[in-house]
Specification:
Length: about 280
């Protein structure tokens, strides 16, 4: 096997600052929002309640977008959603730096089918914590969207792929209408926070290396920090039952996304919701 091929199989051996081919823009984006967030925290360490409230609202909408729409609907098809609700949630998922539906779902299905193996795109078992947390975003090869989710390369989903950059630009800059404090807090600081709460699902909830086969684990304290994506922290539950729309399987495992699905189902906006019944 040539040296180049080995390098492709073990991309975590690259220097951390070196993006994979065609992923320089991802690294630039990550560096930009972190830089802006640091500047914002230094200039406005205590924002007004209105600014914090708006940042929280956008992060909450994005959390629902990721967990209900990207994860449970598009990646695992564990329910059906009214099309208006679906595309409304896609917008907010992208607005919270979730990427386009096709790229998110391709990476995610790839992760499930290769969990913990050298082919797993974001495994801490293979590449360590920082690889699983952030580095894979700009150093791994792209997951093939035609192979993993051909259905998301067509129709309205294709529009979202083209809309990705404009939506992100809007997301970074929109807070400026409330002044510089709004610019930093509603833009970069919110984006950095939302990004790391998503990244913890790849890194922190896969740090259980003691068990054979699957490293996923439930991390209870991560849930409240994930705001409306509280439920994604029950990641061991999810790997054990990927076909269930419900991630918090016990009554003492809060799952905000599940509560939204339940509410949407009760008013007829969600259907075909797949549930897992636990054996006692
Ligand atoms: Zn999943
Ligand atoms: Zn996982």
């Amino acid at each position: 096997m040539s040296q180049t091929v080995i390098q492709e199989i073990r991309p975590w051996d690259r220097p951390f600052w070196k993006p994979a081919p065609h992923k320089g823009a991802v690294l630039l984006y990550l560096a930009l929002i972190h830089l802006l967030a640091i500047i914002g925290l230094l200039l406005f360490p205590l924002p007004s309640p209105k600014i914090i409230g708006l940042a929280f609202l956008l992060a909450a909408l994005g959390g629902f977008g990721i967990t209900v729409c990207y994860h449970r609907l598009l990646a695992h098809r564990t329910l059906r959603l009214n099309k208006f609700v679906e595309h409304f949630l896609i917008f907010w998922a992208m607005f919270n730096s979730g990427g386009s539906p096709a790229s998110w779902v391709a990476y995610h299905r790839h992760h499930h089918s290769h969990t913990d193996t050298p082919e797993d795109i974001s495994s801490p078992k293979q590449g360590g914590f920082w690889w699983a947390h952030l580095r894979w975003l700009y150093q791994s090869a792209r997951a093939d969207e035609h192979k993993w989710c051909p259905e998301l390369g067509r129709g309205p989903y294709q529009f979202w792929t083209y809309a990705h950059a404009p939506v992100l630009l809007l997301s970074i800059c929109c807070g400026l209408v409330f002044g510089w404090q709004g610019f930093f807090w509603i833009g970069a600081i919110r984006l950095v926070y939302a990004l790391h709460m998503q990244c913890f699902v790849n890194s922190l909830t896969h740090l259980d290396h003691t068990e054979e086969g699957n490293s996923s684990k439930n991390v209870w304290w991560l849930g409240p920090l994930q705001l409306t994506a509280w439920g994604e922290n029950w990641h061991k539950n999810h790997h054990s039952n990927p076909g269930s729309a419900r991630l918090g399987l016990r009554w003492w495992q809060p799952d905000i996304g599940w509560y939204l699905i339940y509410a949407l189902e009760s008013v007829g906006l969600a259907s075909n919701v797949k549930r897992t019944r636990l054996r006692r």
